[in-house]
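Researcher: Good morning. I'm working through a list of sequences from a screen, and I'd like to move beyond sequence-only analysis. For each chain I'm collecting a predicted structure so we can compare shapes side by side. This is the next one on the list. No need for commentary yet; just the structure.
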Amino acid sequence: MRSWYFSEMAYHPAWDEGLKRGSLRVILANENVDPQTAHKLLNRYLDEFALCDEVGLDIMVNEHHSTATCMTVSAPMALAVIARETKHARLLTLGNPIANRPDPVRVAEEMAYHPAWDEGLKRGSLRVILANENVDPQTAHKLLNR
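Model: Good morning. Structure tokens for this chain:
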């Protein structure tokens, strides 16, 4: 059985201000982010991922935009950094949205770049399903395990 660690790498220091304004998404101004605090948090999250690798947990990330609940601006970029910092954990992105990118081929290229970071898929980390959100679980399972 595999166990996964999931973090959205939140910028929680801005949550109180965001909630005062009614939302943590979209309407939260950049002035609520301190670059030094963000730097410290991102490094703390990388330390957490390294610890996951040491204790045998696999790692899952995702991305959201314009929100204090997730500092991951690009799932492929996060995966590349985590792949460089870990040795054993399988890496998974919960989603890699194409709709907010002008070129879907670029998304495919970013994901195809990961074997170079992951020693040629030695960990079996990369499984790509190019499908819409309506793929049923049985079909997705078959695609991932072929």
